[in-house]
Amino acid sequence: MLRELERKNKMECREVKEQLAAYADAQTIPPELEAHLNSCEECALELAQYRALSAATTRMQFATLDTPSWLLPSLTSAVRDKAEALQVSRQRMSKLADPRVITGGVLVAASVAGAMLFRERRRRKRTIATRLRQSLARA
Ligand SMILES: [Zn+2]
Fold first, then answer.
1. Distance, CA 36 to ligand 1 centroid (Å)?
2. d(CA 60, ligand 1 centre) in Å
3. C-alpha span between 106 and 76 (Å, rounded)
4. How many Cβ atoms from other residues are within 10 Å of residue 43's Cβ?
5. Could you say which residues of the chain have pLDDT below 70?
6. Which of 24, 44, 70, 106 can bridge 50 by disulfide, Cβ–Cβ 3.0-4.6 Å?
């Protein structure tokens, strides 16, 4: 009976894991998913990892809101150089040099980095799964 229950959980794991990332920030989890997580340590751990990653990404965004003063001059000149290269008008350039705009740019960069980290992680997992399937098919 217990073994049957374990096997049932294993069969559901793949299905559950496909949904886990979507619930990283969720306050509530569907009852059937919750039931699986209560009985499956592996999936529960994976959700915990998604949550930790999500929390880390959020902290990273807040951390970059406070642009360190030593970084501002180099960021300002980097943005100016970029603007010059793109032949942005003088009026817009003075706006671009505004620290608030630069902080906003860093924030966007951090968000993009966080999203890429998340996607890369999912992509890598899929790649591993595909390779595993291929080597099993060859065997
Ligand atoms: Zn599971």
1. 6
2. 30
3. 11
4. 22
5. 1-11, 61-66, 88-113, 116-118, 120-132, 136, 139
6. 24
Length of the chain: 139
Residue 68 dihedral angles phi and psi, to the nearest 5°: -60, 140
CB 115 within 8 A of CB 54: no
Distance CA(124)–CA(111), nearest Å, equals 20
SS3 content of the chain, % helix, strand, coil (to 5): 85, 0, 15
Quote the tokens at residue 103. Answer: 């902080």
What lies within 8 Å, CB to CB, of 87 at 6+ separation is none
Please give the distance, rounded to the nearest whole angstrom, from the Cα atom of residue 119 to the centre of ligand 1.
21
Say how many Å lie between the CA of residue 121 and the centre of ligand 1: 19
For residue 86, report the distance from its CA to the centre of ligand 1, in Å.
Answer: 51
The pTM (predicted TM-score) of the whole model is 0.40
- Domains of the chain by residue range: 2-65+98-138
Determine contact, residues 17/46, Cβ cutoff 8 Å: yes
User: Are the C-beta atoms of 39 and 5 separated by less than 8 Å?
Assistant: yes
